[in-house]
């Protein structure tokens, strides 16, 4: 069964305002999708939370736990348990959980005074970017393999024809 796609739009201009107002909706393993329509329990959903500036701080795959009624001046919605999400969503969820626990979350951008110094030349940057082999690799008698160009297989056209046929037949 295909998952149900749910788009939630919240009236905040940035992530900071969203967290300040609705961090209470986000837990480490679940989330309340404010004002989302009710769906049957255990329904698979793909959802995102969009802000008015177009940012989508949360994109995830989840399962429906159930509807939550509005109470205590807080809106209701649909409670979901996270199943899968990317690194950016994980970082945002962690910020929300820290905020709820009273720990001030780190801001995504640092003030000028805290930014790392800019190096004087590209040569210095290239030296820093060149990966250095670990000490164990230097002692090893194994040769470091450097990836190179890959030659096309001899039956390339036959393989491409098969792939095109699969795509057409679905």
Polypeptide structure, described:
It is a single chain. Strand 3 and strand 4 form a beta hairpin. The two termini are 17 Å apart. Residues 109-130 have low confidence and may be disordered. This protein has a domain at 4-100: Thrombin, subunit H (Beta Barrel), CATH 2.40.10. It is elongated. It is built from five helices and five strands. The chain has helices spanning 15-22, 87-100, 122-129, 135-139, 156-169; strands at 4-9, 30-34, 44-50, 58-68, 77-85.
The CATH architecture of the domain at 4-100 can be named as Beta Barrel
Note poorly predicted spans.
109-130
Can you tell me the overall shape?
elongated
For this structure, the CATH topology of the domain at 4-100 is: Thrombin, subunit H
Structural class determined from secondary elements: alpha+beta
SSE arrangement, N to C:
EHEEEEHHHH
Largest sheet: 5 strands, mixed
Number of distinct helices: 5
Record the strand order, biggest sheet.
1-3-4-5-2
- CATH secondary-structure class of the domain at 4-100: Mainly Beta
Helix content: 25-40%
The number of strands is: 5
Mean of pLDDT: 81
Residue share in β-strands: 15-25%
Terminal CA distance reads: 17 Å
- Computed Rg: 24 Å
């Amino acid at each position: 069964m295909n998952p149900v796609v749910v788009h939630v739009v919240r009236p905040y201009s940035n992530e900071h305002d969203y967290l300040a107002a609705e961090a209470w909706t986000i837990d480490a393993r679940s989330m309340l999708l404010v004002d989302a329509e009710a769906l049957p329990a255990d329904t698979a959903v793909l959802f995102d939370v969009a802000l008015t500036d177009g940012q989508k701080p949360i994109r995830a795959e989840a399962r429906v736990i159930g509807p939550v009624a509005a109470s205590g001046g807080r809106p209701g919605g649909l409670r979901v348990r996270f199943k899968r999400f990317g690194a950016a969503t994980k970082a945002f969820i962690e910020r929300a959980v820290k905020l709820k626990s009273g720990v001030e979350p780190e801001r995504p951008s640092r003030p000028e005074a805290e930014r790392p110094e800019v190096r004087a030349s590209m040569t210095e940057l290239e030296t820093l970017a060149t990966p250095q082999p670990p000490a164990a690799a230097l002692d090893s008698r194994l040769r470091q393999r450097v990836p190179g160009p890959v030659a096309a297989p001899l039956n390339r056209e036959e393989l491409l024809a098969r792939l095109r046929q699969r795509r057409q037949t679905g």
